[in-house]
Amino acid sequence: MPLFRPFVRPFSAFANHRNTEENQEETPFEFTPENHERVCELLTRYPDNYKSSAVIPALFIAQKQNDNFLTLAAMNKVAKILEMTPMQVYEVASFFTMFNRTKLQKKEGVKPTELEEDTAKSLTALETSNKDIARELRSTYINSVTEETFEADDGSAAKYILVKIPFRSLKFYKKVSSQVIDHLEKKFSCSVIVVVNRTIDSLRKVTHTSQKRPRSRTLKAVQCATLHDVVVPSSIVGRRSRYSPVTGVTEQVFLDPLDKMLVEEKVEAMADAYRKLTTHKVSIEFAKPTSFQKKKLEKLNAKRE
Questions:
Q1: What residues does 239 pair with on adjacent strands?
Q2: Which fold has domain 204-305?
Q3: Please, which residues have CB within 8 angstroms of residue 203's CB and are 6 or more apart in sequence?
């Protein structure tokens, strides 16, 4: 009996697999000579009747070779080398969340909404049409997409799209954030805000005495990082907090004045998104431009005219 027996779930993401141009059984996949040698070296660590124990490291090698994406053909190749049935490999890949199989990363058993599927298809289309940023887009995944409504300052009803991505996609998303937001805003014809899912560790969390809570997982650090996510594609250049016995804490955030043309229409949506995510009210304004920035703004306005 093998050391590792894959757990079979009653529901699998592969039961509803949809073939795409880059992810189907006919898509060619072969290990490079270096990676094939690594897989063969893995097999030497186990007896001949325990080859299936190498399924997880073999899938990792296949995913890394394929630009951090695990296709159906790659899993079939691993199954053939390890002498396993394809379904056994599918179940392993669907059980562990570190294997990237689809653009939309949902919890097992949670069905994606129509809006989430449309967003995932739109990003996939952007990935295939723009080869310059395809590598970063391939590692940018989606956790959830919702349509949020709020009341604007003039009393009218407004809406925006709130997209949440996993933390492991942050490094790649930062490089293509402007392109992603512009593409989605053109598709949905409204403001789009992308935030990263982060973990907050409570002070009451029971851990080993030698294990300290990471500063990046404190409540204040997560809220600060969320604020920086909300204002993209602009950036924060200043913050101010004022305390009043009547209104409480009023936080003012100042954005780069050079980005005023880009995000001026999204300021109210940004403030509402931050309030819903953190329950904190914030006032978003643009900083006073310096003499150098004034000259640069004049040149930009002259070009547009």
A1: 253
A2: GMP Synthetase; Chain A, domain 3 (3.30.300)
A3: 213
Q: Which residues contact 303 (CB under 8 A, 6 or more apart)?
A: none
Parallel, antiparallel, or unpaired for β 157-165 and 191-196?
Answer: parallel
Our CA angle for 223, 228, 229, nearest 5°, is 95
111-115 LR contacts (CB < 8 Å, sep 24+)? 113/145, 115/145, 115/146, 115/147, 115/161
Q: Where are the domains of the chain?
A: 13-95, 103-197, 204-305
- Determine if the peptide bond prior to 112 is cis (ω within 30°): no
Residue 14, C-beta contacts closer than 8 angstroms, at least 6 positions apart? 72, 90, 94
pTM, 2 dp: 0.72
What does the alpha-carbon distance between residue 134 and residue 163 come to, in Å, rounded to a whole number? 19
pLDDT tens column, 182-211: 999 999 999 999 999 999 888 888 888 788
- Right CATH for 13-95 from 2.40.50, 1.10.10, 3.10.450, 3.40.50: 1.10.10
Topology, domain 103-197: Macrophage Migration Inhibitory Factor (3.30.429)
Which three-class secondary structure state does DSSP give residue 241?
Answer: strand
Chain segment 247-276, per-residue pLDDT in tens: 777 789 999 998 888 888 899 999 999 999
240 closest CA partner among 251, 248, 230, 231 = 251
Return the DSSP state at 206. -
Q: Which of 69, 78, 8 is nearest to 39 (CA)?
A: 78
C-alpha 216/C-alpha 138 separation (Å) is 26
Specify the 3-state DSSP secondary structure of 265: helix
Task: Record the tokens describing residue 248, joined without a space.
Answer: 């409480």
Q: How many helices (H) and strands (E) does the chain have?
A: 11, 6
For residue 199, which phi and psi values (nearest 5 degrees)?
-100, 135
151 and 181 Cβ atoms separated by less than 8 Å: no
Both ends of the chain: CA-CA distance in Å?
A: 75
